[in-house]
Structure formats: structure tokens, C-alpha cells
Design brief:
Oligomer: heterotrimer
Largest sheet of chain A: 3 strands, antiparallel
Chains: A mainly alpha (about 190), B alpha+beta (about 850), C alpha/beta (about 240)
Number of domains of chain B: 4
Low-confidence stretches of chain A: 185-193
Number of helices of chain B: 25
Helix content of chain B: 40-55%
Shape of chain B: globular
Distance between the termini of chain A: 16 Å
Structural class of chain A: mainly alpha
Distance between the termini of chain B: 33 Å
Number of strands of chain B: 21
Mean pLDDT of chain A: 77
Strand content of chain A: under 5%
Strand content of chain B: 5-15%
Mean pLDDT of chain B: 79
Order of helices and strands of chain A: HEHHEEHHHHH
Largest interface: B-C, 42 and 51 residues
Largest sheet of chain B: 10 strands, mixed
Chain lengths: ~190, ~850, ~240
């Protein structure tokens, strides 16, 4: 998520001053969204230039200047909400690469490698789950974030489980000639920054 | 530890949870029964039916004969004296002195004018100490003074009397004050007067109690109810025997039902064990379910039985001719039936209970039944049982009528039952092995039958037992009826009536000894006219004169002897049965329709040779050696016997006749014994009554067809019974057995098997079970009957089995399995809905 | 003292050629108040481990100690009593007894132990009440939703003074919300001192445990270290 859409989102709740935007931005993102706070003002100027937000003309530049969302800004935000993130190409995942290397490296115990990662992932999940234990101090946004993280880690654990099983089965079958049908895929893994 | 529980220390609680645990488990079983009783409807209905049938059957059987205390009231002893005895008063006085409380009933017999019936003028105290069960008031009052009388409704209608009328009777005028009856016998017609009002009693009865004193030691004419009855084979005994057999069959059938039910609850039972129930608790769930089914079935059956009984009681009173108390029921039998129902189902559930408790908890929890156990593979225990039964029955068969070996007979028959039960699983595995090369639709059900022997084995045993009973009855009755000497069967055809003169075979018994002796010519003419008149009243002109001689047949060898009358083959007699004189061998001495008689050796004709031994009809002179059989002592060895099929077959009909040739040769005198009337159609009850009354006036006795069944009737009934039972059991078991393999069926359907395959599976299961049951039951039946007959000289030994009821056996061995298979085929078409329902559970 | 102690547990199924070694010298300790998760792929022997720990099955070798008592030295009836008094099970498919109401299901272990029906019922009601199911007490299992059924079965597993809770995929058939609720209940029981073992292949479920044991082909291959405090997660990381 970029600073641009974060600011649009904050303004969708109502007109806000520049300082207020900066403080709220910090408060809401500091914990889970690693965004650069310094970009807030430059981004606001760019938004105003694009006609997505409007400032109160009479006020001076600075923290006391008020901003509100234009209809175009609102449309931009709504559009963004419905635009799916780019999930079509696989991300370059270190974990996947490590496991693939381990498979081909002579003398490496792939299962042991997988288990080390699995344990690490589970330990991470245990920490996230610990956060959920006390439900009373749990706000909705935070809960959603924790769940998202847990499901992401869970997906990795599942992938490890599946890889574990697949490698085990492959080991018990006779090795097939070198004809991996995945050159395209390999290229695309490296394609995204 | 959500809750802190105030619970006694561990030592205080029993290790198995004690009563609270059992109560909780039984409560659960009861709830399960309430939820799933429909699945056990079949067993419930069977038990209810058995109990209801037992109640009604035993109630009718015990209440139909006259009550045991008939004539005794509540007294234990009854002394009867002739009214004319001069010492009457002193004899009564001595009885009263010796035994205290007593009651005197005086009877004077009067004939009803213009009728052969009679009634009694009876002096009896309505408040007497013993006689109250013998007297009850229908309307009006009991007579209290010399001028009063109460009559039965029969007497009232005979004399056209009603309450308030004056009745001139025996020279006395009395006012009718009431209508009375004897509840113990509605046929007892009498006029009741106050004690002391019978002037010239013909018979005096004294009722008294003499506990512990033998009736013979008191004097002649003293009886007790026990000395009158005293038959061990009373209706209650028979009811109990039938009940035990029925419950055994039900128990065998329900084993399968309870096993399926327990399998269905396997996961719950596993959970119960995981919760800490002991093996005993788990078994108790299944057993309690069995007991509950038995109890509910017994209660329902008892209620149904009682309701039917109460509805049927009035008509039974009419036909039995005595009043029957509303609750005059054989309570012992009823209680026994209910207890047996519970016991039978409890034990039927015990077997699955044991096997369920043995399944590992983990397997139970995952709903995996334990693999079927390989049990009772060996045929040896079953064969041993059969050998024991064979030997026991052989020993019993060697007994004679005088020294019956009843315990051995019963034990031998009982030994056949475990033999059948033990051999059933073995037969199933043999069958499965035979079917190994058959197509899948046949191989699979056969293998399933063998694999799930716990279920199919008990069903097979039940079918076999039903067939066993049918086969034994058929073979024994065929053997008994095929005995040409002691001929058994119906006495006459339904359109035949025999009239006997006092000289006839039954005449002398019916009339007093003073009236016996040869009838005079004029008497004979009168009788002949009466016979013609009776024939005319029945629309018949076919009156055959039956002549008898002193000759009779004798079988000079061990075994049964001759029975039945031998009439003379007069030309008229032969003609009336369509036999031409030319068809008869002129040298024949005896003509008979009894098949096989002509081939019987060691036959003798015995007769009254004038001065020697007298041989009355039907009574052999005893068994001498053939050397002593000479004309001198009235014996004619090896008469020429010719079989003539046209002679009638009734035991009282001329089925065997002596030819005029023999009568002349032996110099016998023929006398008229009676007449045989053949009417165009069977006479009605009213015609028979009319004929009987007419006959009585001329000193004739009458014989009509009795209710004795013919051999083929007995065999047919037995066959129908056996097949019906077997099909019923099949109907109940096949569904259960196939439901076990419903999973297989689903897989088969998924792999593309058509409904035709499903039908074949069910048809093969039913047909194979039916066939095995028929074969096993027939073999067991033959083993038993051969064992008995082989050594039983009285019934002619093993040769008596020559008469094989082929048609009936074919029906059992071929017809029944085919019907079972066909019904299975037809019904299997609409099975899946029930199956999927069960799988969803 | 550990509530549950498995010492060198091995389990072999079948014989000869069809022999399968389900468990291989497993050691496991569970202390009172702790929640241990056992993770592994299907066929790794994790369910067998649970049934052996709960005396539903006997190990081929090794020793099971529950609350200080050696299971192998007990008769079948004593093991049954141990299950009634000390061990509670929760299964994936609830395994409530049809024909008994919720409260009767919950109080059944007590009744099986010889507690009078009235007292057992009171205890069962209290247990249901704690899990917020008091209004479902007289419902039959088929009148309850999946989540409610599993809650009833948890109440049944902890009713009385039972100190060991064994759960086999307790939320396997439930959606994630209900699954989380189930785990919270188990955790709640642990906070009262109950020792719990949850067997699962679900990482999210396992992450509720304070210790996760990894099972692979019948062997313990790994277990999680004592995790750092969750606060470490909340430090903003330089990452996009």
C-alpha cells in the first residue's frame, strides 16, 4: 500500500489538517504498515496537483492547512479498493529457492531443512497467536492484520508440508531424466523485484 | 476441573461404577430403543405375536375341556351312591362323621316326553359349602320352599315355562321362581328344588374334603379331581413346549438383528468406552436393548392377547358348553411366556454384546467392525450331536408301547437342535467354497454369507429347525399311515355314514350288557327299515349291508397287529364300489385296499371254529407260532390277499373284506353288523343329529366322519408350516445380512453394477440360505427319523420309511429356495432408499 | 510432576510383511497447566500417540504414566476408571451419544464413575454453564450446531476433576471462528491447571500451544523453542 492511497483513505473519513493527517498516519501504520512518514507532505502536494484533494486556499502552507477529498479523489479511492493486487506472478520467495537448492544439493537433508523452516514459521505463528489470546485489548483492525499474518505463515507451513510429502514420494520413485518443464517459471520468479 | 465436585473418595466408589453406572447405561439403551424402535420392529412384532399366540392358544386349550373340578365344586372328594341303596343314609352319616363338613346333592332323572333327552330334578343348597361353582342364578330367585322350583333355560323351553308359571312335574305342582344354570356345564339340564324335596333320588352325590386320604380307602365310588384328570400331556404342557421352541427360533433370528444394531452403534459404544465405561457396561447397553425389546414385545403381546381373549371368550363359552371366567387364564403359561421373551432376547443380544465389548476401542471409535472371526469351522461338534441324537432315538425306538422311553425320545429330538445350530456355519463355508468359481454376483453373496456367519449362521439354523420340524412330522406320519396292519387315517369319507346294529363292532359298547346278543329277525327288519329311512332323509338309496363273521386277521410276527373290521364281500358290497365279480381272483380269501398288505408275510385268518378259541372281530387271539395255526384251533395260515383299489379307504369303512369263497371254505356264519350309507353330498350337522335320534329309537348306533386328518393332510400342513416359517425367517434375515454389506453394494453400484446385479445378490443370498436350510433340516430330520424307526419294530422298522412324501420334500428342497430367491429378486428392486438412509446415519 | 509422561513408546501394527511401525520410541512430557500440540502429516502416528496416551490402546513397548500411575500395571477396569476420572477426550467428530441430552452427555463420565444421577447432573450443568451452553442443556446432539456440539464435548472432557485433556483435531470439522473458540476453551482449561495435548496438522491450531512437537514417520523430529515475547513482532521492520 502506498502513502498516496493511505492519505486518500484517511481523508475519506472527513476533512483533516496536515498535522492531523501526519499523526493519524503514524498512529495507524506504525505498528503494522512499514511506510515512510516523511513522504506525507510531498504526497499531499502531488494529490492536490492531480485534483484528487483540495486544500482550503485561504490557509497557509504548513501543518494547519486543511484538506478534503474531491469527487475525483473519492472515485480514485473506490477504484483502488476494487483493483486486485498483482498476484498473477509468483513472488520471488527465498524459502522456495532455499528448498529447491536443498533438493539439488548433494548431501543436504532436505527434510531437515524444511523442518528448520517449519519450526521457525510455527514459532512466529505462536507469537502472533499469543497476541490474540487476550481478546479484550484487541481492536478489529489489529485482529484483521494478525489473522492475515497468521494465514500467510500458515500458507507457507502448508507449502512446506506439501513439499515435504512431494519430495518424499519422489525419493521413493526412480529418478526421471532431466526434463524439468519449468524454464518459463524460473524466469518469472526472477522477474519481479 | 471446571467444577469442584463433591465426590466421595475413590475407594468408596465401586471399580465398575456400580449401580449409578449401570443405571446410566440402561437409561441410554432405553433412549436408543425409543429413538430406533422402528429398526427393531420385526423382532418386536415376532415376540409380541408369539406371546399373544401363546396366551390365546393356551387360554383356549385349557378352557375348552371341562374344568378339572367338574362335578366337585370346591370340594376335594366326591362320593356317588345309588339312590336305591338301603344303606344310603348310614353311609352318608358315616362320611359326615369322619370328614366333617359335607354337602349332599340328590338327583332324580326324568325323560323329556317325546324326546330321547332327559333332565334331572336336583336338590341342592345354593349356599352349600362346596357346590357354589356348580350353580348360578341367571334370573329370578333360588327356590326356598317346597312349592318352588328353578329351571335351566333348556328345561324352561322344553316345557314352555317362564318365571311365575306353575309347573306340574312328577305329580307335584311347583311355581317357577328362577332360571338357573350350571356354569361348569351348560349342557347340564336340571330343575332345582330346595334340599330334601327330591322324593326318590336315583343318584346321590356327597361332596367333602378328605385331604391326604386316598379316595380308594374311603370306599367305592369316591373320586378326586386328580384321579379324574391325571394326564401329564395337558394343554399347558403343550403350550409351554411350543412356546420354548418358538422363542428359540425368535432368539436365533434376533441374534442377527441385534448384531447389526450393535454394529451401527459401534462408534457410540467406542465413545462410551473412551469415557471410561467398563467392558461390562458396554455389553450391558446391548443386552439391555435386547431385554427392552423382549419386555416391550412381551407387554404388547400380552395386551393384544388379553384383548383378543376377552373378545373371543363369549363365543368360546358357547362352543365349550361351560362358563369361562374372564380371567380364567393359564397365568403360569402367560408369565412364563413373558419371562421367556425377555430371556430369549436378552440372550440373543448377549452374543453381539460380547463381540462388541471385544472390539478394540480405537477400532470401535473409527466405526471399523472387527474382522469377522473364523469360528465354528469344524463340522465335528455338530456331527457328534447328530450321532448322539441318532443313538438316543434308536434306543427310544426300541421301547414299546408298554414300556415307552419318552425321556430318551425327547432328549434325542432336543439333541438334533444343537447339531443343526453347530453345523450351520460349517455348511455356509462349504457353500462359499463351492461358489468360488461362480460369477461375481453369485460368488460375492455366498462369500458374505460365510464371512458374516454370526448373522447368517443363526438365520440358517432357524430355517433348518423349521424345516426339521416339518420333515420329522411328514416322515413320521407317512411311516405311521403306511402301516398296513394298524391302519390309521380318517374313519369314513365325509358323505358316508355307518349304522351299527348291537352286533356291530361298536354296537355292544354303546348299549348296556343286558341288551347285547343276537338280534331277532323282526328287530333286524325294523333296523333295516330305519336305515332305509335315514338314507332317504339324506337323499340316498345307496344302503350297503355290512355283514360280519367271527374271522379276523392276525399278523404272527413282532410289530403292530391287525386293526379294523373285516366285513363280508357280498355281491352287493362289491357292486356298490364298482367291483365286478369277474375282476376278483376266485381263490382270494381277503380283498383289501390297504397297499402292501398282500405282500405282508405271516398273516393268519383266525375265526371261531365252533368249540375252540373264540376270536371276536378286531381282537387277535394273541401271537402263537405258525405251527399252532391249524383249522382245529380256528386258524387259517397265509390267506390269499388281493389288493383292490376300488374299496373305500376309511378305517371304519370296508377297506378289507373277506370273500364269500373264504366264508364258505371256513364254514363261517355271517351276521348283519350294520349298514353303510353313501349320500350324494356330505350331510349337515342337523341331518346328522336327526339321523342319530332316529337311529337311537331303533337301537342303532351311528358313525360319521371324525376329524382325524389324513396322512397327506398332515404332511401338507407340516410342509406349509415349514416353508412358511423358513420364508418368514428368510424375510427377516436377508435384509439384515445384506445391510451388512450395503457398503459393498454401493461400491458395486459405483463401479457400474446395474439393479440387476443388486437383485441377483439378494436373490442368491435368499436362495442359498433357503436351500442350505432345506437340505440341513431335511438331513437332520431323516437322521432323527431313521434313528428312531430303524429300531422300532412296532412301526415296521426301516421299511416303514419306504413311503417317501416325494412331492412335499421336493417342495421344501426346490420350491422353497426358488420362492425365496424369486421374492428376494423382486424386493431387492426398491432397496436403496433404506440403504442410503442407513448409511447416512 | 508431569501429568502425562510417555517413555520410549513404540507401536507396531500387523505382523511379518504387513508390519507397520506407527510410533518409534516417543518421549513426551506434559506438565499441569500446559498445552502441547503434536503436529505431523497424516500417517505420522499422531493419533496413535493420543490413543496410547489415553489408554485406549496399549503400546507395543514403552511406558505411559498418567498422574504418576503406570498404565501398563493397570487392569482394563482400572484403566476405564482412569479414563473416567483423569482423562478427557475431544474428537474431531464430537462423538456425542445420540439419545442423551447435552447435560446427560456431559454428566455421563461422572455417572459411569458411580456418582449419583442428581449430583452428576448438577456438575454437568455447571460445566455447560461455564462454556455458555446452559440454555442448550436439554437439547439432543442432533439439535445443536457443529460448534455447540464440540463445546459440549469439551465440557464432557473436562467435567469432574479431570487433569488431562486429549484432543484429536478438535476443530477439524469447524470453520475458523468456531475452531478458534474451541482452542480458547482448551486454553482456558489449561489456565485452570489441566494438562492438554492437541493433535493436529493445522499450524494455526498448533500455534495456540506453548510447545509444538513435530512428528514424522512415528518419530519426534523437532519441537519449538520457548518463543520470544510477541512484542518483538511489533517492531516496524524495514521491509515493503
Amino acid at each position: 500500500m502506498s502513502v498516496r492511497y493511505a492519505l486518500l483513505a484517511l481523508l475519506s473519513e472527513g476533512p483533516k489538517y496536515g498535522l492531523q493527517l501526519r499523526q493519524e498516519f503514524e498512529a495507524r501504520t506504525g505498528e503494522v504498515w512499514p511506510l515512510n512518514v516523511g513522504q506525507v507532505y510531498t504526497t499531499l502536494q502531488r494529490l492536490e496537483r492531480d485534483g484528487l484533494v483540495e486544500s482550503e486556499d485561504d490557509a497557509e502552507e504548513g501543518p494547519q492547512k486543511g484538506f478534503h477529498l474531491t469527487p475525483e479523489g473519492h472515485a480514485e479511492l473506490t477504484d483502488w479498493l476494487r483493483t486486485p493486487p498483482d498476484l498473477s506472478s509468483p513472488p520471488r520467495d527465498e524459502l522456495v529457492i532455499k528448498v529447491m537448492v536443498a533438493v539439488r544439493m548433494p548431501g543436504a537433508d532436505v527434510h531437515e531443512v524444511i523442518q528448520v523452516h517449519r519450526r521457525y514459521l510455527i514459532e512466529l505463528m505462536q507469537q502472533w497467536t499469543r497476541l490474540k489470546e487476550d481478546e479484550a485489548e484487541f481492536d478489529l483492525g489489529f485482529a484483521l492484520v494478525v489473522d492475515a499474518e497468521l494465514f500467510r505463515l500458515d500458507a507457507l507451513v502448508r507449502w512446506l508440508d506439501a513439499a515435504d510429502g512431494r519430495i518424499k514420494r519422489a525419493a521413493s520413485e526412480p529418478p526421471r531424466p532431466e526434463s524439468f518443464p519449468m524454464p518459463k517459471l524460473r524466469r518469472r520468479i526472477g522477474a519481479r523485484p | 476441573m471446571i467444577t469442584k465436585l463433591d465426590r466421595p473418595p475413590a475407594q468408596a466408589l465401586p471399580a465398575d461404577g456400580g449401580l449409578p453406572a449401570r443405571r446410566a447405561v440402561v437409561r441410554w439403551a432405553w433412549r436408543l430403543f425409543r429413538r430406533e424402535w422402528r429398526q427393531q420392529l420385526l423382532i418386536l412384532a415376532l415376540i409380541a405375536l408369539a406371546v399373544a399366540a401363546t396366551i390365546i392358544g393356551s387360554a383356549v386349550a385349557t378352557n375348552t375341556p371341562q374344568p378339572a373340578n367338574f362335578g366337585f365344586g370346591t370340594a376335594q372328594d366326591l362320593a356317588t351312591f345309588q339312590g336305591s341303596s338301603p344303606s344310603l343314609a348310614s353311609q352318608i352319616a358315616s362320611l359326615q362323621q369322619r370328614f366333617g363338613r359335607s354337602e349332599v346333592i340328590e338327583n332324580q332323572t326324568f325323560t323329556i316326553p317325546g324326546s330321547i333327552n332327559s333332565y334331572q330334578l336336583r336338590a341342592e343348597n345354593p349356599q352349600g359349602p362346596f357346590s357354589q361353582p356348580m350353580l348360578s342364578l341367571v334370573s329370578g330367585n333360588f327356590p326356598t320352599g317346597p312349592g318352588q322350583v328353578a329351571v335351566t333355560s333348556g328345561v324352561a323351553s322344553d316345557f314352555n315355562l317362564k318365571i311365575g308359571d306353575l309347573w306340574h312335574q312328577g305329580g307335584t305342582v311347583r311355581r317357577v321362581v328362577g332360571i338357573v344354570e350350571n356354569p361348569q356345564s351348560l349342557l347340564d339340564e336340571f330343575a332345582l328344588v330346595a334340599p330334601g324335596q327330591v322324593k326318590a333320588p336315583s343318584q346321590v352325590s356327597v361332596l367333602f374334603d378328605a385331604p391326604g386320604v386316598s379316595p380308594h380307602s374311603i370306599g367305592p365310588g369316591v373320586l378326586t379331581p386328580q384321579s379324574v384328570a391325571g394326564n401329564a400331556l395337558n394343554p399347558e404342557t403343550i403350550s409351554i413346549a411350543g412356546l420354548v421352541l418358538g422363542m428359540l427360533l425368535i432368539a436365533l433370528v434376533s441374534i442377527g438383528g441385534f448384531t447389526v444394531l450393535a454394529q451401527r452403534r459401534l462408534r457410540s459404544l467406542g465413545m462410551l468406552e473412551a469415557l471410561g465405561a467398563t467392558d461390562k457396561n458396554v455389553g450391558l447397553v446391548v443386552r439391555a436393548n435386547g431385554g427392552v425389546v423382549g419386555l416391550v414385545g412381551a407387554v404388547v403381546g400380552a395386551v393384544v392377547g388379553l384383548v383378543v381373549w376377552l373378545a373371543y371368550r363369549p363365543s368360546l363359552e358357547q362352543s365349550a358348553h361351560h362358563m369361562i371366567g374372564m380371567f380364567a387364564l393359564p397365568w403360569l403359561v402367560i408369565v412364563l411366556a413373558m419371562v421367556l421373551a425377555v430371556v430369549a432376547t436378552y440372550f440373543a443380544a448377549s452374543r453381539p454384546a460380547r463381540s462388541i465389548a471385544r472390539i478394540p476401542i480405537v477400532a470401535a471409535l473409527s466405526g471399523r467392525p472387527a474382522p469377522p472371526r473364523q469360528i465354528h469351522r469344524s463340522a465335528i461338534p455338530g456331527i457328534v450331536c447328530f450321532v448322539v441324537a441318532f443313538l438316543l432315538l434308536g434306543y427310544a425306538g426300541a421301547g414299546s408301547g408298554a414300556r415307552p422311553r419318552t425321556p430318551e425320545l425327547a432328549l434325542g429330538i432336543v439333541a438334533l437342535v444343537p447339531g443343526v445350530i453347530l453345523l450351520s456355519p460349517f455348511c455356509l463355508s462349504v457353500m462359499a467354497r463351492l461358489g468360488q468359481r461362480a460369477p461375481i454376483a453369485i460368488r460375492l453373496p455366498l462369500r458374505d454369507l460365510a464371512r458374516y456367519r454370526a448373522r447368517s449362521g443363526s438365520a440358517l439354523a432357524a430355517i433348518s429347525l423349521g424345516i426339521l420340524i416339518a420333515v420329522i412330522i411328514s416322515l413320521v406320519s407317512a411311516a405311521r399311515y403306511s402301516n398296513v396292519l394298524d391302519y390309521a387315517g380318517p374313519n369314513l369319507a365325509s358323505n358316508q355314514i355307518n349304522l351299527y346294529t348291537p352286533n356291530g363292532p361298536y354296537g355292544q359298547e354303546n348299549l348296556g350288557p343286558t341288551q347285547s346278543g343276537p338280534s331277532s329277525a323282526s328287530q333286524l327288519i325294523r333296523m333295516r327299515k330305519t336305515a332305509d329311512a335315514i338314507a332317504a332323509s339324506l337323499g340316498s338309496h345307496d344302503v350297503v349291508e355290512l355283514e360280519t363273521t367271527s374271522a379276523s386277521l392276525n399278523h404272527n410276527a413282532p410289530g403292530r397287529n391287525w386293526s379294523g373290521p373285516i366285513y363280508v364281500a357280498t355281491p352287493q358290497l362289491l357292486r356298490s364300489f364298482g367291483i365286478k365279480a369277474s375282476e376278483v381272483d376266485p381263490n382270494a380269501d381277503i380283498l383289501t385296499m390297504r397297499p402292501g398288505l398282500s405282500g405282508t408275510s405271516e398273516m393268519q385268518l383266525t375265526y371261531d371254529s365252533g368249540g375252540g378259541v373264540s376270536a371276536g372281530p378286531g381282537q387277535g387271539p394273541g401271537r402263537g407260532t405258525s405251527a399252532s395255526c391249524t383249522a382245529k384251533n380256528g386258524c387259517f395260515p397265509n390267506p390269499v390277499i388281493e389288493e383292490v383299489g376300488a374299496l373305500p379307504s376309511g378305517t371304519s369303512a370296508p377297506n378289507t373284506v373277506i370273500t364269500e369263497h373264504a366264508v364258505h371254505a371256513l364254514g363261517l356264519q355271517a351276521t348283519i353288523a350294520g349298514w353303510l350309507i353313501e349320500s350324494p353330498s356330505p350331510p349337515t350337522a342337523a341331518q346328522i343329529t336327526n339321523a342319530r335320534q332316529t337311529a337311537t329309537t331303533a337301537n342303532l348306533t351311528i358313525e360319521t366322519k371324525n376329524s382325524a386328518p389324513s396322512s397327506s393332510q398332515i404332511i401338507d400342513w407340516a410342509t406349509v408350516f415349514g416353508i412358511g416359517l423358513a420364508l418368514g425367517i428368510l424375510a427377516m434375515s436377508v435384509g439384515l445380512i445384506r445391510s451388512e454389506t450395503a457398503g459393498d453394494l454401493r461400491i458395486l453400484a459405483a463401479t457400474g453394477a446395474s439393479s440387476r446385479t443388486r437383485r441377483t445378490l439378494t436373490a442368491v443370498t435368499a436362495g442359498a440360505l433357503g436351500l442350505l436350510g432345506a437340505v440341513l433340516g431335511t438331513v437332520a430330520g431323516y437322521i432323527g427319523v431313521i434313528g428312531y424307526i430303524r429300531s422300532n419294530a412296532e412301526n415296521g422298522g426301516i421299511a416303514a420309511l419306504g413311503a417317501v412324501p416325494v412331492g412335499n420334500l421336493l417342495l421344501i428342497l426346490v420350491g422353497m429356495p426358488l420362492i425365496a430367491a424369486a421374492v428376494g429378486w423382486l424386493l431387492a428392486g426398491r432397496q436403496p432408499s433404506a440403504m442410503t438412509h442407513q448409511l447416512l446415519e | 510432576m508431569s501429568m502425562l509422561e510417555l517413555r520410549k513408546i513404540s507401536k507396531v501394527y500387523g505382523q511379518g510383511a504387513s508390519e507397520v511401525q506407527a510410533l518409534h520410541e516417543i518421549d513426551l512430557w506434559v506438565d499441569p497447566g500446559s498445552l502441547v500440540a503434536v503436529m505431523g502429516a497424516s500417517g505420522s502416528g499422531k493419533s496413535t500417540l493420543l490413543t496410547i496416551a489415553g489408554s485406549l490402546e496399549a503400546p507395543t513397548s514403552g511406558e505411559v504414566v498418567v498422574g504418576g500411575a503406570l498404565l501398563s500395571e493397570m487392569s482394563r477396569n482400572d484403566q476405564a476408571r482412569m479414563r473416567r476420572r483423569s482423562i478427557g477426550y475431544v474428537f474431531q467428530d464430537y462423538n456425542l451419544l445420540a439419545g442423551l441430552t447435552s447435560v446427560e452427555n456431559v454428566s455421563l463420565p461422572l455417572e459411569l464413575d458411580g456418582v449419583s444421577a442428581k449430583k452428576a447432573r448438577a456438575a454437568g450443568m455447571a460445566a455447560l454453564d461455564e462454556l455458555g451452553l446452559a440454555d442448550r442443556a436439554s437439547h439432543y446432539p442432533d439439535e445443536l450446531s457443529g460448534g455447540e456440539r464440540q463445546r459440549v464435548s469439551i465440557a464432557r472432557a473436562v467435567v469432574g476433576d479431570r487433569q488431562l485433556l486429549l484432543a484429536d483435531e478438535p476443530s477439524g470439522a469447524l470453520d475458523s471462528t468456531n475452531g478458534e473458540a474451541v482452542m480458547r476453551m482448551i486454553l482456558g482449561a489449561c489456565k485452570r491447571g489441566v494438562a492438554a495435548v492437541v493433535v493436529t496438522h493445522d499450524a494455526q491450531l498448533a500455534s495456540w500451544a506453548e510447545r509444538v512437537v513435530f512428528l514424522r514417520d512415528g518419530r519426534v523430529v523437532d519441537q519449538t523453542m520457548s518463543p520470544p515475547s510477541p512484542e518483538s513482532l511489533l517492531q516496524p521492520a524495514p521491509h515493503s
